[in-house]
Amino acid sequence: MYKLLLSWRYLRTRYIALASIISVTLGVGTLIVVNSVMAGFAREMHIRLHSILADIVVESHSADGLPNPAWHMEEIRKTVGSDLQGMTAAVHIPAMLNISVRGQWITRPVTLIGIDEATYADVSDFREYLLHPANRQKLSFLLREDGYGDKDHAIPPAGWRYRRMKIITERDLEAQERLLRAAINPGGAGETPLAAEGSTIPPDPTGIPQDPFAGTNTAPTFDPAKEQKAGIILGIAIGSVRDRDAEGKVMDYYLCRPGDDVRVTFPSAGTPPKAVSDVCTIVDFYESKMSEYDGGFAFVPLAWLQQQRVMGDAVTTIQLRLVPGADLKLVRDKLRARFPAEEFAYRIQTWRDMQGPLLAAVQMETTLLNILLFLIIAVAGFGILATFFMIVVEKTRDIGILKALGAPSRGVMSIFLSYGFSLGVVGSGVGMIGGLLFVKYINELAKGVELLTGQEVFDPTVYYFQEIPTVIQPLTVAGVVIGAVAIALLASVLPALRAARLHPVEALRYE
User: Fold this and answer.
1) Which residues contact 454 (CB under 8 A, 6 or more apart)?
2) Measured at the alpha carbon of residue 423, what is the angle toward residues 417 and 427, in degrees to the nearest 5?
3) What is the four-CA torsion angle of 36, 40, 42, 45, rounded to 10 degrees?
4) Which of 7, 210, 237, 370 has the CB geometry, 3.0–4.6 Å to 294, for a possible disulfide?
């Protein structure tokens, strides 16, 4: 009983130990906050990455793609068996996108993805990140009447209603320019106003009479106010720019919107490839909040892209979604054994293999931060070590009296071990509570810091998140607390051994 009483007395009266407690508290709290924020970012990143990538991708190295995809998919079904949940075929090719913005053409490099709208949702969460609610329920490459804006996206009017008004306005402007030119040059005839020199109205790609799928200029009855070209879904960062207005508010400025037409240029199949160019109608935006995807991916119907490239029914990738809990690496290895590299020019990877460098970089960053921040607790441990040695020297007489009264060496040692354990428990407990509260109110605290400093802690124009993501992992919190208590306990071992080895005669000789 005397051991606990002495430990409690030292804890209450030795204010020098307060510095050690504060060090442990800060170390534990910082580790919990950092791990929670990093886990939040990692979770968001995994969700966004996996939203567009299937569990396993079978990709062809050939420019012509995988021939006879039906046979390949049947072989994959036999190989994967009951682990297979969904499968689809797609075409991935590089392309150039041209957008007309206020009389100027903007060119964007994109990855053009031809997808099967009936099966693509079986292997990814693609639909969940589409802008129009109806497309989130059932994917379609047909332009909707309206309904593209919501509380999170202040998108200008879009859809069929916007498209009709745009065409009517352009036709009115064309008619006015024709009348103006006729008034200036009554004898001129046969001149095309839009193509005349000095015209401020750019050539409208919708004016090209073109079949939505064939891509030939042989459909003179095409009316852009009533018909659309082949549908295309753009990553939202392709068709918009996120920046701040004059008042500092974050705004999305749209270069194009659903209902506008864009020109897409991509290579045909075969060797050597030839450039294929056609006009597509934007039918929706895709927003995964991953800049790599939102700024580089465009989706079109699979059958249209195959026809444009003259590649028959060939595809470039076959994508698989496995049942929850399936071993991705095991299924990948089975497929590699079925389609060996020496016989088939295919690359078979899991989604983690495809994003390996990025995931490894995030994991290494988290590990290094944990190591560096854990040194704060180690510094607190050395503080406890120095404090305890001072206490042993100061309390030499008291230790001698205890041992002279019959206290065993083990009992004296346990006094200091209990003291160190108490410091660790108090410091880590307060740090845990403080860290958890900080994580819970981190976004409110960030806003307070922004008000005080005038500087943004979390810039939404960079991260495309509305708030700082956090995830509290109970095992991590428990590991941090246990580690802090263990360091405090280990720091008290050497002083406790020294106190236990003191001989009562030597301790009381000069008293």
Assistant:
1) none
2) 150
3) -170
4) 237
CA gap 123, 88 in Å, rounded = 7
Return d(Cα 11, Cα 426) in angstroms, integer: 10
Q: With the C-alpha atoms ordered 290, 291, 293, 295, is the resulting torsion angle positive or negative?
A: positive
Assessment of whether the complete model's pTM goes beyond 0.90: no
- Name the 3-class secondary structure at 138: coil
The Cα-based distances of 271 to 145, 227, 251, 345 in angstroms read 41, 34, 45, 17
For the chain, what are the domain ranges? 2-47+358-508, 85-316
Question: Phi, psi (5° rounding) for residue 392?
Answer: -60, -45
3-state secondary structure 482-498: HHHHHHHHHHCHHHHHH
Spacing of C-alpha 243 from chain mean position: 20
pLDDT for position 2 = 47
To the nearest 5 percent, what fractions of the chain are helix, strand and coil? 50, 20, 30
Tell me phi and psi for residue 60, to 5 degrees. -90, 140
The amino acid that residue 168 corresponds to is: I
203: which 2 tokens? 């050539």
pLDDT at 497: 79
User: According to the model, what pLDDT value does residue 196 have?
Assistant: 39
Owner of token pair 């299937």: 54
Please give the Cα distance from 106 to 100 (Å, whole number): 6
Burial of 369 (0-12, 13-18, 19+ CB in 10 A): middle
User: What does residue 150 show for φ and ψ, rounded to 5 degrees?
Assistant: -150, -170
pLDDT digits (tens, 9 = 90+) for 57-97: 999 887 678 888 999 999 999 999 999 999 999 999 999 99
pLDDT at 395: 66
How much is the average pLDDT of 386-395? 71
pLDDT at position 317 over 60 = yes
Residue 269, SS3 per DSSP: coil
| Strands in 153-274 per DSSP E | 230-235, 240-244, 250-254, 261-267
Contact indicator for 283, 144 with CB cutoff of 8 Å: yes
Give me the chain's average pLDDT, please.
Answer: 80
- For residues 96 and 82, the answer to whether their CB atoms sit within 8 Å is no
Q: What is the pLDDT of residue 205?
A: 46
> How far is residue 417's CA from residue 388's CA, in Å, rounded to a whole number?
10
Residue 510 pLDDT > 50, yes or no? no
* Cα dihedral value 299, 303, 306, 309, nearest 10: -80
